[in-house]
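Async update (no meeting this week)

Hi team, since we skipped the sync, here's where things stand on the single-chain job. The sequence we agreed to prioritize is pasted below, unchanged from the tracker. I ran it this morning and attached the output directly underneath so nobody has to dig for it. Comments welcome in thread, and please keep replies under the output.
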Amino acid sequence: MLKNQINQYIGLARRTDLLDKDFTKVIHELRALPINGFPNDGWDDHWARRWEFPAITSAIIANSKPGDTILESGCGITQVPFWLTDFDLEVTGIDLDANLGKRWDAVKVNKGKAIFKPGDMLKLPFNDNTFNASYSVSAIEHTGNAPTSVSEMIRVTKPGGLVVFTMDIDIANTDSVPSEHFEQVQDILQAQATPLYPARYVSPKDLLTFTNRTLKPQSSAWLGLKYFVGSIGLKKWSDQCIYFTVDVKSDVSAKIVHLPASYLPEHVGGKEILVSNVIRYNPNFDHRVAVHHPTRKSYKYDGVDVDVLPRLPVTNYRYSYFSKIYPDPSIFASYLDQHKPDIVHFHDQGEGASLTHLRECKRRNIRTLVTYHSPGQSCLQRALTFAGVEPCDGHIDYVRCTSCQYRLKSVPGWMSDVLARVRLPIDKTGKFNQRAKTELFYQSWNEFYSSVDRVQVYSTWLKNMLMMNGVPEQKIHYIELGGPGAEEPSMRQVSSGPLKLAFAGRPTYIKGIHLLISAIKKLPADAPVIVYFFGAGWEDTEYGRDQVKAIAGDARFMRPEALAPKEVTKRLRDMDVCVIPSLWPETGPLSVFDAFAAGVPIIGTNHAGIAERVRDGHNGLLFHWNCVDDLHVKIRLLMNDRIELQRLRENVTPLRTSREFAEDFGLLYNQMLNNA
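Output:
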């Protein structure tokens, strides 16, 4: 019963919304959970404890093993140490109040595994390197010397151990931890510890709810006072800060090899940009990029070695293409033996990041991580649309997926369903029989995701799809995407001139550019609208060339502009709306972040990653998937109603930055290295 209750809290603590800016919903769910049977210092029902307790408990349990020794500094009397003993951990609590010993002794849960000792947080009565982990729950601010408190916790924790704490920060320097002490704490952490989890800041205002569109504090008069003092601009309330750090420093940087299949500057896409940001904002690691190409030579990009390897030999192209297995891995095997990476980071799957590459890593006990950049990784036809006519939920089913392949070849639906059940043993690569091709592809997919150590995603729909296909939840690591930060607030008022629409991205069918062009052509020829296209490669593909032809001679369309990624946001600031009409389920896309950083609302497909980030009627409008008519209606609405357009624009706020996104990878790398 006890462990079930703890797991309820921990399950909530691991949810991504506990790490979001808006804590209201999850805190209310935490409030609803029972806490009967535990000791009570009078603070368990305090708003902060309802997220601090599960967050700290989750971090300790995730990074500990049975028999580990744990210290709570400034313990009081709460549930946390007794929760931890139920996971076979030995907990020592220390507090200035010696009378707490009797109350600890009275607790009947796992008798003897939780021990109280009187003592001072500023001079802990323990030798150096005593505990496997140390934690403190909002006690540091009461010592009057936060830097010393944190230093003492680090001192008594073993190298490689975990230090976790929360504390109040006073942004007005009138109470709690003053800003100068907080800066000293940050310096101590930077010098003596490596982050395992990101620092998170929570304010009492996160406990507010909406009642008839009016902010209303929850029950506590103290909380209401704290919020309302802050709300009138005096800035006196304290933010709650939680730090998770690992006490380990090394003079040798861990080696990370990235396998993105293609890289800058030859290929400019969302994946390449993200890899570049991960490298740029994690300089404490020794990064290399490896790609395969038959003729290019190795080079440096932005100071990073890009190693160009020959392609792996192929004896049966169809077999290797669908199975991602190559008969001779010696080229990549030699590369691994030469550079001896600590982590190989796969960016999607393909010829340059295949199952063969993964097998070679596993043979050498190299840690492996895959980032799921594009939805095509789990779809034979790469677009995750069933027969090209409707969105697919991504569920892997041999019959259904094979039927989809036949339908794409114009085989009638009923016949496709019959043929999908037929297997020809002599056709092992699917040259004639689509079922064999499906089996090759998904057998490889299953082995890859069973073998890789971690899977990183940045969309909720993608995490759910992977779990639906059998990938364990504990293997999936969610890192919310990031984009360019807003250099300054966008104060531009919507003009009364032509509505300026922009598309930013690659000119490929899955991006739905033809839908935008068709929707505009349904408007009168003299409609006050201008469409801009930002992106390169329009003349490189048949689809791109077809779209250029479609807009030729129409004054409402401007010729595409090839912009560097860093120029896109600046260019979007002059636009009224960014249109994202994607057909495939976006895992991002980056154009959402570009637009919001520029202060521009979005008209986008009501599907996958776009729908996760665009709130219909708030900071943009969503239209039905693959529906030209609905897109036309949304464009016409904003063309004719500039007040509505201005309202949407005023609701736009930048999402998290690419730096924040990239730095979270550094934390993930450290987790993988420390949990090996």
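Quick observations from my side:
The CA atoms of residues 12 and 210 lie 22 Å apart.
Residues 1-47, 202-251 have pLDDT under 50 and may be disordered.
Reply here if anything looks off.
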